[in-house]
Amino acid sequence: MTKATENHMDRVAQLPCIVCFYKMGIETRPVEVHHVSVPADDCAVAPLCVEHHRGATGVHGLQRRTR
Ligand SMILES: [Zn+2]
Ligand SMILES: [Zn+2]
């Protein structure tokens, strides 16, 4: 991991959860840094709170569900 990427991820980790922020207008912290799968772009990361990251309504939680 390059120094620049490390700094970028550090900055992202300081941001509020993007889902909470855009959907409800609230700033939820702390967040986990979620890697968006964009090949060849290390910097495609998004701050997500634990619920929106791995919770029942989270990006990883939704993927596990077959509906
Ligand atoms: Zn959230
Ligand atoms: Zn993730």
UniProtKB/TrEMBL annotation:
Protein name: Recombination enhancement, RecA-dependent nuclease
Source organism of this protein record: Nitrosospira multiformis
